[in-house]
Amino acid sequence: MSGPNTDYDPVEVTPLHAEEVERTRDEALTAFTEAADLAALQEAKTVHLGDKSPIVLANREIGALPPQARKEAGQRIGAARKAINEGFASRLAVLEAEHEERMLATERVDVTLPWHTPQLGARHPLSLISEQVADVFTALGWDVAEGPEVEAEWLNFDALNFQPDHPARQMQDTFFVEPAGSGKVLRTHTSPVQARSMLSRKPPIYVICPGRVFRTDELDATHTPVFYQVEGLVVDEGITLAHLKGTLDHFVVSMFGEGLEARLRPNFFPFTEPSAEVDLKCFVCRGASVGNPDRPCRTCGSEGWIEWGGCGVVNPRVLQANGIDTDRYSGFAFGMGLERTLMFRNGVEDMRDMVEGDVRFSRQFGMEI
Amino acid sequence: MRVPLSWLREYVDLPADVTGRQVAEQLIRAGLEVETVEESDLTGPLVVGKVLTYENEPQKNGKTIRWCSLDIGKDEPQWVVCGAHNFEVGDLVVVVLPGAVLPGGFAISARKTYGHVSNGMICSSAELGLGDDGTHGIVVLEPGEATPGDDAIELLALRDDVLDIAVTPDRGYCLSIRGVAREAATAYGVSLRDPADLTLTGSGENGYPVRVDDAKACSVFVTRTVTGIDATALSPRWMQKRLLAAGMRPISIGVDVANYVMLELGQPIHTYDKARLSGEIVVRRANAGEKLMTLDDQTRELDAEDLLITDDSGPIGVAGVMGGASTEISDATTDVVIEAAHFDPIVIARASRRHKLSSEASRRFEREVDPNLPRYAAQRVADLLAEYAGGTILPDETVVDTHPKPAPVTIRADHAARVAGAVITLDETVRHLASVGCTIEAAAADAVAAPLAAGAHAPVLAEVGVTTVGSTHVEGDDLLTVTPPSWRPDLRDPNDFAEEVIRLFGFDNVPSVLPAAPGGQGLTVSQRRRRRVATALVGAGLTEVVSYPFTGAADFDAMGLPADDVRRTTIKLVNPISDEEPSMQTTLLATLLRTAERNVGRGANDLAIFQTGLVFLPKAETKAAPLPSVAHRPSDAEVQSLYDALPDQPLHVGVVLTGALAPTGWWGKGRPAGWADAVQIARLIASVVGVEPIVKNVELAPWHPGRCAEFSVGGPDGMVVGHAGELHPKVCQAFGLPARSSAVELDLDALIAAGPESIAAQPFSSYPVAKEDVALIVPAEVAAADVQAALTEGAGELLESVRLFDVYTGEQIGEGKKSLAFALRFRAPDRTLKENEVADARQAAVQVTVDRFGAVQRVG
């Protein structure tokens, strides 16, 4: 920096005149305001704030002033520079915002377009419903029990009080495993899992057994040789038919909704005595269609009740064959067909849809039933 | 069992206006399975007419019609055309008038025919739904049977509801009108007029000679003889009508009467032409080589276990199943020997199965018939033959009866209430037992042996009160000695009696109480992991399907399994649905590929499906499963041998991918599903259950020999758990799948078992990561997984991860070689790694690949 030039007449240093500084400032602000885009603003910045801009040049002149004048000129120039810088910054912010807005607008896409990653697949509804049943009963503290599909004849029949020559044993349309007399069958119901549970556990026993079973029926709209059942078994002290009814009522409500109930009709099964068929109060019409031709119900055929399964108090002969002390314990059991349940619950009209493995059948359900 | 309502009404005073449907509802509540109620579609007017005049009018077609005037109780005669000629002036006939509908939905109107307007028609038996009465003409009523103008529907009981009941095995007595009537009487609280309540006219001696050699198999054998019948006599119209309604065809008076009595009482009857019998009737087991031509004209080879009816000529019937042709009654028969017997249910069931012959008789005997019935049933047959076939009943009667009397059963007086968990008073209990026909005696509580356990769930019943049986005052813990009626051989155990009481008490009246189970543990580890696998596969875009587990040689051939492939050794069924598919699947793909084929055939080209299911793997040594006693629990050894006799049945998961995984679209070209996707899905399944499998190339059908990955768990010498990869081109072709379809099959049970019990959390470092890439040239046949394993092994503890990111083959590196590029990440738990530490670790990693595979680092 050079020393003070005492001969220098500040009045003669034009750029530092107040009106000149104001003019320089106003020119800069006008140029910024008039800059239409960021490039123009950058150009204006070079002109009005660059190294050779009037305000920067004027600043350099301050040193040439006599000391007594420097302060005033410095303040004047400083204020002008501040104003110019602020003008630039505010214009820059506006232009940048405009620029971003324009750019985002150009990047707009059609969000309804499909994409190439795989869509969600689907569970088979039989799996979903059997998991739902399992969840209802595990919530009650029951276990989910399982067993093999090729089963010992003894476990499938004898242990359940199906005597060898009893008509009930013939009614089951059994697949037998070679050679004849092998003592092995494809299980005709999930009941052998009950026998296995009694043989392997000590009471209290609370189990639910979903599974695939087999009968020699031809496939048609309402029959299939391979189908799914779910059975429940309780063996405990003081178990009664009332407990069976309570369990079935709970099951009905869990699967079909509040306010519904089960109804028992006497029937015959070898492994239970007394035995009954389970009907479910129609969850669609709730009985309103009965005797009311104006409001027919397809789900229950205007019967008000839907046949659902079988149940009963475990025959003490069954307990005995499986080593349960009948003086101390009693039990109940129940069972339902899951295909049938899906048919009336979800309006599946043809059994074949459920067993043929057409993906379209599963896909309409996805992960829910 | 088909039960016409009118027949039921004969024995039970049902309310007059009650319909078949209403009766059915009551019977269903009582435990009978009424499957359908047939309601007659017949509507009137259908009236009795008296023939006033008729003119015979020959027609051009050769027929002669009659133009008749009839008195139908109106001022003016009714004029109709009639084609039949079996009536005379003054006869009473049945006339259907315009506006009526005859059975089968035939609507009647006045119509022009043969030059006249016929205002209705005169009806034949068949037109009224009564079957062919053999007259080939119209129905002519007995003189004085009715008055012209009477409602013929009522007169002939033409409109009748028929209940069809599926009789459960424990209710054999309901295979009779008598049995159903008993239930209906109880249901409506009215008394039963027992049709078996007959006057026996037999002397009990001097009947047709009979010897029973097997008293256990045949405990009762009764014969009566009726002489001098006209076997050509027509069965009465009411009997024919009832037989038809019950589903049996009227044949001849002899056959019809036997069938009628069987339907009425439930006792199967056999009738013999006495003239064709020779010598004593002997009931015995068959001898080897004996044959019999049965009534259906089939010659049957007899089994030594068959129970036979024989005479001097040899076998004349398979007892309780079907009679022989040689002693059958015919139109020429005059003297009839009636057989009414009681056979052991098991003997009959076995014979019926053995000869594949289920008759009306065998169905009843299998379910056990009332052993007290034979004398009454034989009497009823004789009475009907005497009345309708003009015979004479001989007082001579054979009665062989060694049947034991029903055994009394002792039950706690409150047993039914305890089983039900309901307040059933002792009064009700005794009343219900009596109404099913039991006789009841009471004993004091002193005799109660075993005190009943207090029970976790106190029975709902509190007080059951007291009642009086005979002169005995009964309380809840007193004992009842109950003797079942002869027609209820199924009532043996205390619970059998409880069921009778509870069903009559009403299942609806039993309260509903949810039992409290002890705390459970939720799903097992395996059950939880299976669900997660399914969920993950669905997330990856796969759809779950089900298919039957049946398979056969055609599937194995299509899969290209070699002749000695272990998967061809299967569990076979004695009676498969299809002879082409006699086996249980040993691989899920056998059936899943068929399912894929069906879907592709239905137009689904881009398919990603999965299934879980058991496969059935025979054991090296096949043993029969034992059939231990059911009197007590089998021993542990017996239980074990039951389990051991069964094949291994692990749960597998199978996947088939065909076509494109990603379709071509606006984003660019699509991506076909390939071997790598299949392998990746198998890896996904393994990682869902927490298993890191070892993967290597193998050759195995049905996969492409160069594109099959074997998955194993448990280290280098671990267990193979399945395969994944591209299917062999021939397999794709055989199953009609697009080229380069791929598949996975894994043993899910084994994978899950290999999963961790629990996962211990590891701390992770917050120091910076050091990244190093390395490219290695190795022989082409070296597996990338092995090179990666070698790098991992050599890099030591500082290695955080290693990932293959490039594979290159080409001129630059020479034939038979490939370049594999890996990204390595190093990090220490406690410090920032120094450059030389990283370099050393990298070099150590590379060195192992050099030593093991002769790898050369690729530079630049």
From TrEMBL, chain A:
Binds 2 magnesium ions per tetramer. Its main location: cytoplasm. Its EC number is 6.1.1.20. Its cofactor is Mg(2+). Residues 129-343 form the Aminoacyl-transfer RNA synthetases class-II family profile domain. The keyword Acyltransferase does not apply. Mg(2+) binds at residue 273. The keyword Transmembrane does not apply. InterPro entries: aa-tRNA-synth_II (IPR006195), aa-tRNA-synth_II/BPL/LPL (IPR045864), Phe-tRNA-synth_IIc_asu (IPR004529), Phe-tRNA_ligase_II_N (IPR004188), Phe_tRNA_ligase_alpha1_bac (IPR022911), Phenylalanyl-tRNA_Synthase (IPR002319), tRNA-bd_arm (IPR010978). CDD domains: PheRS_alpha_core. It catalyses: tRNA(Phe) + L-phenylalanine + ATP = L-phenylalanyl-tRNA(Phe) + AMP + diphosphate + H(+). Keywords: Aminoacyl-tRNA synthetase, ATP-binding, Cytoplasm, Ligase, Magnesium, Metal-binding, Nucleotide-binding, Protein biosynthesis. Pfam families: Phe_tRNA-synt_N (PF02912), tRNA-synt_2d (PF01409). It is found in: Cytoplasm. NCBIfam families: pheS. PANTHER family: PHENYLALANINE--TRNA LIGASE, MITOCHONDRIAL (PTHR11538:SF41), PHENYLALANYL-TRNA SYNTHETASE (PTHR11538). Tetramer of two alpha and two beta subunits. Belongs to the class-II aminoacyl-tRNA synthetase family. Phe-tRNA synthetase alpha subunit type 1 subfamily. This is Phenylalanine--tRNA ligase alpha subunit.
Automatic annotation (TrEMBL), chain B:
It catalyses: tRNA(Phe) + L-phenylalanine + ATP = L-phenylalanyl-tRNA(Phe) + AMP + diphosphate + H(+). Binds 2 magnesium ions per tetramer. Mg(2+) binds at residues 490, 496, 499-500. Its cofactor is Mg(2+). Coiled coil: none annotated. Residues 765-858 form the FDX-ACB domain. Residues 40-153 form the TRNA-binding domain. InterPro entries: aa-tRNA-synth_II/BPL/LPL (IPR045864), B3/B4_tRNA-bd (IPR005146), DNA-bd_dom_put_sf (IPR009061), Fdx_antiC-bd (IPR005121), Fdx_antiC-bd_sf (IPR036690), NA-bd_OB-fold (IPR012340), Phe-tRNA-ligase_IIc_bsu (IPR045060), Phe-tRNA-ligase_IIc_bsu_bact (IPR004532). The keyword tRNA-binding applies. Tetramer of two alpha and two beta subunits. This is Phenylalanine--tRNA ligase beta subunit. It is an enzyme of class 6 (ligase). It comes from Kribbella pratensis. Residues 404-512 form the B5 domain. Belongs to the phenylalanyl-tRNA synthetase beta subunit family. Type 1 subfamily. Its EC number is 6.1.1.20. HAMAP family: Phe_tRNA_synth_beta1. Transmembrane segments: none annotated. The lineage of its organism: Bacteria, Bacillati, Actinomycetota, Actinomycetes, Propionibacteriales.
